[in-house]
Design brief:
The complex is a heterodimer of chains A (287) and B (284).
Chain A: H1 2-38, H2 47-50, H3 61-64, H4 68-101, H5 107-119, H6 122-140, H7 148-173, H8 176-184, H9 189-218, H10 223-226, H11 234-243, H12 249-280
Chain B: H1 6-29, E1 33-35, E2 41-45, H2 48-55, H3 57-89, H4 95-108, H5 111-122, H6 127-134, H7 148-172, H8 176-184, H9 189-217, H10 221-227, H11 234-243, H12 248-278
Antiparallel strand pairs in B: 1-2
The chains are: A mainly alpha (287), B mainly alpha (284).
C-alpha cells in the first residue's frame, strides 16, 4: 500500500515536471503556429475576421494577394542572407584557422575583435556603420547606405563571428596528426588542407553559415539604418507595417518566411545533421 | 610541416578591425559635440550631451527600465529554461533531438514575425483573454503591448532558446552517476536538484545569465515592437533619437552610456563570481 502511494506521487511529480517543461514550448511555438494558421483565413469583410484563430473558411486567398512590395523585400532579404552567409564563411574560416593554429602574442585580443560585433548592440552597429558610410561618401562621392553593398557589409559584419565560433569549436577538437599523416604520405600542405582539414571542419562551416543566414534574414536594427525607401529588407518592411496598418496578407508572407527558415534548417540537417549543428554552434558561437 | 597560419588572420582581422574601430570612432566621437538638432553638430569639444543624460530623469529612467527588463528576462529564462534543458539532456530517446529542433526553430524565426502571432493571441477578444476573462481570473483583458511585461515577454522569445541550448550543454557535463549516488543515499528528488545539480551547474548558470542579460540590454526589435512607443529601453531610445529627432550626437551619447553600463555590469559580475568562488560559495 505504502509502495503504491509512493509510486503514484512520483508519477504525479514527473507529470508536473513535463507539464512545466511544455510551458516553454507553448510560449515559444504558439505565436508561430498562430501565424501559420491565421494566414489560412478566408477573405472577409471585416479585418477582425481575417485574424481569427482558429481560422474560418480555409483558403489560400491571402497568399495570392501578397503585395509586390512584400515579395520584393522578401527576395532582397533572401539574396542578402545568402550573400552574407557566403562572405561570412570566406572571412570566418580563415580567421578561425589563424586563431586556433597560430601562436601570436596578442591572440586573446584578436579573438576579442572578432567577437566584438556580438558584444556591441546591433542598433549601435547600425547607426555607427551609417555614420561611417556618410564619412566615406563625403570623401569619395559614393554613398553605401541604401545599396546592396552597404547592407551586405553590415550583415557580414555581424554574421562573421558566428562562423568564427562554430569553426573554432571544431578546430579545437581536431587531431593535427591527421594532417601530418597526409603530409608524410606526400601531400602538399595545401592538399592536406583541402583534402583533410576542410572536410573535417565542414559541419562547423555549415552550422556557421546557417547562423549567418538566419542573423541576416531576421535582422531589423542594422538594416533599418542601411536600407532606403524602395530598397527594404523583409523584416524592416513588416516592422514598419506593424506601426502602420495591419494587412492580413502579412500573415501569408510571414508564413512563407517561416517555411524558408524551416527549409534552411532542413538543408543543414540533411548535410551535417542537427547534432553537428548543436555541438558546434548555438552555445559556442555566441560566447 | 610549417605553415604560417597567422597570415590567414590578416585579411579577416583587417576588415573586422577597420569596421569596428572606424564606425565606433566616427559615431562615438560625435557624442562629445553639442547637438544642434537636424543632424548638425557643434565643433567644440564639450560634455553637454552627457550632462543632459545624467540630469534628465527621462534618460535615467530609460536606463533603469533597460536594466530591469533585461534582468527579469534573464531570470525568467533561467526559471523556464533550466527544467527543459535538464529534461532534454537526460533523455535517451530520439525525442531529445526533436525537442531541441523545436527550440532551434523558434530561435531562428525573427520576433518581427512572432509578434504577429502574439497580437492575435493577446488581442482583447483573442483566445488568451477569452480564457482569462472566462475563468474569472481577471476582470479586464491583459495586454502585452506598451508595458514592461510585454517587453520582457518579447525579450524572452529570443533569449529562452539560447538559454535552453546553453543550459543543455551545461547539464550534459554533469554526470548522471552523481545524481544516482545522492538518490541511493536517500536524498529526495528536490534535494538532488538543490544540493547536486544546482551547485555543479552554477558557474554555467552564471555565464548564461550574464550572456542573456547582455543580449537583452542591446535588444532593439522586441523592445521596440512590444514596448509600443510607451516603454523606452536604451536601444529603442537610440533609434528614436537618431531617426525621429535626428539628433545624432545625443544618440551617440545614449549608445556610449549603454556600452559602458553593459561593460561595467559584466566586470562587476565577474568580480562577484570570483569573490563567491574564493569564499567557496560556488563549487568548481
Amino acid at each position: 500500500m505504502r509502495f503504491s502511494r509512493h509510486r503514484s506521487t512520483r508519477l504525479l511529480g514527473r507529470l508536473c515536471f513535463y507539464a512545466y517543461c511544455s510551458l516553454s514550448y507553448i510560449f515559444l511555438l504558439s505565436p508561430i503556429v498562430v501565424v501559420i494558421a491565421t494566414s489560412l483565413n478566408g477573405p472577409s469583410s471585416t479585418s477582425e475576421a481575417s485574424f481569427k484563430f482558429p481560422p474560418e473558411n480555409l483558403s489560400l486567398h491571402w497568399y495570392w494577394n501578397i503585395p509586390s512590395a512584400q515579395l520584393e523585400a522578401l527576395g532582397l532579404s533572401f539574396g542578402l542572407a545568402l550573400v552574407s552567409a557566403i562572405f561570412a564563411c570566406l572571412l570566418g574560416v580563415p580567421a578561425a584557422l589563424g586563431l586556433v593554429r597560430s601562436n601570436l602574442p596578442g591572440k586573446a585580443l584578436i579573438a576579442a575583435v572578432f567577437r566584438a560585433p556580438l558584444q556591441i548592440p546591433s542598433i549601435v552597429t547600425g547607426i555607427a556603420l551609417l555614420q561611417l558610410f556618410y564619412v566615406i561618401g563625403d570623401a569619395t562621392g559614393f554613398y553605401w547606405q541604401g545599396t546592396l553593398l552597404g547592407l551586405a557589409i553590415g550583415h557580414i559584419f555581424v554574421a562573421t563571428p558566428f562562423v568564427v565560433g562554430t569553426v573554432t569549436a571544431i578546430l579545437q577538437r581536431f587531431d593535427r596528426r591527421l594532417e601530418e599523416a597526409a603530409v608524410i604520405h606526400g601531400a602538399t600542405p595545401w592538399r592536406a588542407l583541402r583534402r583533410v582539414t576542410i572536410p573535417v571542419i565542414m559541419p562547423g562551416v555549415y552550422a556557421g553559415a546557417l547562423y549567418a543566414f538566419m542573423v541576416s534574414f531576421g535582422d531589423v536594427p542594422i538594416a533599418i539604418f542601411l536600407t532606403a525607401p524602395g530598397f527594404v529588407t523583409y523584416p524592416v518592411e513588416i516592422f514598419y507595417a506593424l506601426e502602420n496598418d495591419f494587412d492580413p496578407s502579412l500573415m501569408a508572407s510571414a508564413t512563407l518566411v517561416i517555411f524558408i527558415c524551416l527549409l534552411a534548417l532542413l538543408v543543414v540537417q540533411k548535410a551535417v545533421g542537427l547534432d553537428a549543428l548543436l555541438k558546434s554552434g548555438g552555445t559556442g558561437s555566441t560566447r | 610541416m610549417y605553415v604560417r597560419w597567422w597570415l590567414l588572420l590578416i585579411p579577416p582581422f583587417v576588415i573586422s578591425f577597420t569596421l569596428v574601430a572606424a564606425s565606433q570612432f566616427v559615431f562615438l566621437e560625435s557624442s562629445f559635440f553639442k547637438d544642434l538638432g537636424l543632424g548638425r553638430i557643434g565643433d567644440e569639444f564639450v560634455l553637454d550631451n552627457y550632462v543632459q543624460f545624467v540630469t534628465d530623469s527621462f534618460f535615467l529612467r530609460a536606463l533603469w527600465v533597460t536594466i530591469k527588463t533585461s534582468g527579469l528576462a534573464a531570470l525568467f529564462t533561467l526559471i523556464l529554461g533550466f527544467p527543459v534543458a535538464y529534461m532534454i539532456a537526460r533523455m535517451r530517446s530520439q525525442w531529445a533531438m526533436i525537442l531541441l529542433a523545436g527550440i532551434v526553430i523558434s530561435t531562428f524565426i525573427t520576433i518581427v514575425i512572432k509578434v504577429y502571432g502574439l497580437i492575435v493571441i493577446f488581442s482583447a477578444n483573442g483566445m488568451f483573454n477569452q480564457a482569462l476573462l472566462g475563468s474569472g481570473l481577471a476582470s479586464r483583458p491583459f495586454s502585452i503591448f506598451g508595458n514592461t511585461s510585454g517587453v520582457v515577454i518579447g525579450l524572452m522569445h529570443f533569449t529562452l532558446g539560447f538559454g535552453v541550448l546553453l543550459l543543455y550543454s551545461i547539464v550534459q557535463t554533469i554526470p548522471k552517476s552523481l545524481e544516482d549516488a545522492a538518490q541511493i543515499h536517500g536524498a529526495k528528488r528536490w534535494r538532488v536538484y538543490y544540493r547536486v545539480i544546482f551547485p555543479l551547474a552554477l558557474p554555467g548558470i552564471t555565464a548564461m545569465l550574464l550572456m542573456v542579460f547582455n543580449m537583452c540590454m542591446g535588444a532593439f526589435t522586441s523592445a521596440a515592437l512590444l514596448g509600443g512607443g510607451r516603454v523606452f529601453t536604451l536601444p529603442v531610445l537610440i533609434q528614436r533619437t537618431v531617426m525621429m529627432d535626428i539628433k545624432y550626437s545625443l544618440g551617440a551619447t545614449i549608445a556610449a552610456v549603454l556600452l559602458v553600463s553593459v561593460i561595467a555590469i559584466n566586470i562587476l559580475s565577474i568580480f562577484l563570481v570570483r569573490r563567491m568562488r574564493a569564499a567557496h560559495l560556488v563549487m568548481v
